[in-house]
Every structure is written in C-alpha cells, then in structure tokens.
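[agent] plan:
  1. take the single chain provided in the ticket
  2. run structure prediction with default settings
  3. attach structure tokens to the ticket
  4. add a short note for the reviewer (M.T.)
[agent] executing step 1
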Amino acid sequence: MRTRLGAAVIGGGIAGATAALALAEIGARVEVYEAKARTAIEGGSVTLGPSAMTALDQVGVGERIRAVGFPVVEARMVNTVTGREDRVSWCEPGHQWSSTHVWRRDLLAVLRDRLDRVSVRTHYGTAVTAREVTAELVVGAEGARSETRRLLGNSIPLRFTGQVIRYGHHPGPLPGLPRHVLHFWIHPYGVVGYVGDDRDGSFWFSRHTADAPTDPIDLARMLHPLCTTPAAAVLDVSDVSDQFALYELDPRGIWNNSDTVLTGDAAHAVSPAAGRGATSAIEDAIVLARSLRHFGSIAAGLDAYTAIRRPLASATYRSPRHHRPPRPTADDLALSVDR
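[agent] step 2 finished; step 3 output follows
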C-alpha cells in the first residue's frame, strides 16, 4: 500500500538522499534539509557492496552509479607479518551486480539529480534540528554526530578506533596489479590498500594506529608500508588527503520513537575497515521505506525497521577483521513488492 505521509529528512548525504528517494518511491511527500551547499566539494571515494547496488536499482539510480563507477570483483589480502594470503569474492549470491567503487562526489550528484527528477524538495545550506521541522515522520540522517540521535535520548558516544587514515589518488592505473581488485597489505601498525581502473586511475589508502585522534603521524611513516607494494610507483605523484581520525558508533540505544528515526551513521557508524558504512546506509533506506509501506502506522513501521536493521548493524560492529557478517538478500531489498 502506498502512502502519502509527509516526511522530513535531516541530512542530504548518501544516507539522507537515498532515504528520501526510497520514501518518495512509496508515495511519501518528502523534504530534505542539508546543512552544506549543493556546490560544496565532496572528496574521497566509496566502495558500495552488491546489496547496495541492488538497493540503488530500487530507487532508479543503479545504472547511473555503475556508469560513473567501476566494478570491484574481489579482495586480495596479504599479511606481511605471517605471509598468509587470502582471496574473497566481492560478488554475493542472489545479487546481480558486484561491488562498485565510485567517487563520493559522483554518487551524491546522481542521488541529488534523482531527487530533483522525482520532485523531492531539497533545502541546501539549511541546518535544522528535528524540533524545527513539522512532518508526520522525521528521519535523522545527518551523520555520526547526529543531533537527532541526541534529541531521541540516545547518549552513546562516538568511539575512536585507535586508527587514523590518509587517502591517495593517481589518474593512471598501476601496471603491476589487476584492475577491479581490492588489494590489502596488513602490517604491524595497520593496513594499506589499493584498487585501480583504466578510466578512473589508482586509489590507495593507509590506515595507521595512533594513540589519540589528534596524534599526527608523519606522512613518510604512513606511506612506508606502501613503499614495498606496487603502489610505490605512484606515491610521489599522487594527490594525498589530510589525515583523518576514524570513529565508530555502537548501534545500541534508541533508534526511533513513534515518529522519528535514525538511519545510516546517525544510528550505527563503522570504521572504513568494515567496508560497510555507505552500503549499510543505503540498505537502511530501502528497509525503512519497505517497513513503513508494510505496516498500518508510522510507529509500527519504525519499530519493524529497527528490529530488522539493528541485528545486522550489531553484527558488523562486532565482527572480527575480514569476517563478513550477514547481508540482506535481494528479496529483503525489494521495495516494490513484498516477498
């Protein structure tokens, strides 16, 4: 059953834009409030899992995301201490598409263009709180430092993971490594990684242990583990990001009341080490809309959404390194028809 409920989504990033599209898909009247200007520069890239690609098809943007990104079909891990090597497929049974690597700016541009096309009114450069909007449903999607979470009474703090990260990019791919494969090298102080594509070039990162979020790690020290990998060839000619501290948020605590709900990092932020942040946010959006359509009241729909999504978020939060927690199936993410 389609619904004409009025919804306000606070946050127009990946989580908020996808939630708005999913709610519009079930017939809701949606307005989005995004604190940043639409022209704000969004750096970095993300790797979306197969379930995210299934979910993005549900809101009409999957094909465009695949066009601006590139597939990632496998992860290869080397432990430089023990010498152990592992391979993991980044395709999943039941999902049509593999993982997809995409610039964050391109992902947001596609999502926001779709918001315009389906007539979702989006207020850029407008910072609001859940108390300042009037709607039957309020969705808090403003990230890990969510004010909506605080207003709901969820006081669980962000936790520093003990790691910092830098990202790098070079416009050409490395000749010595296969394309469309995520390569990880585990070393005593963290992990470095690389993925490449003929069109989009080389993407690499270095995660390193740190005593505190503000502990500066010398750039040469962070890049040193990459110097023993094929990525060494492009380090001196790469664009390199600033250092960022990595945080995570335990998914316990209040996610919803009768008319307000958290989604994405506002409910369950994870370190990039989990490889699930953006994917989980996109899954949240579909399950939220699906639950609201299925139940006769907003309160029941929100309770169902939390009951479905929290166990998956908890499994991701607590999972050991390189363990793959349960994933939603394509049926779980079918928005148009309940199966």
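[agent] step 4 note for reviewer: The mean pLDDT is 93.
[agent] ticket updated
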